[in-house]
Amino acid sequence: MRITIDIDATDLRKIQKVTGLKKKSPAVSQALDEFLRQQARREFIVRALSGQTDFALTNDELEARDVYEAR
Fold first, then answer.
1. Which of 6, 13, 18, 68 has a 20 to 30 Å separation from 28 between CA atoms?
2. pLDDT digits (tens, 9 = 90+) for 6-26
3. Residue 27 covered by a domain
4. What's the pLDDT tens digit per position in 32-47?
């Protein structure tokens, strides 16, 4: 999907530096993907700590997962 957004030039340079990507769109896309993965991890931790998670998987199976599934 194509959209137009305003991003501060300094922030965009930081995003490009952190991602290691020179092109703007791929750098922003990668940063957004990482942000969403972190949010999913936080939500999983909140569910786990509140007892709302079914631990049917072993610890090794959980660690092997890249992204935790949302309920």
1. 68
2. 999 999 999 999 999 999 999
3. yes
4. 999 999 999 999 888 8
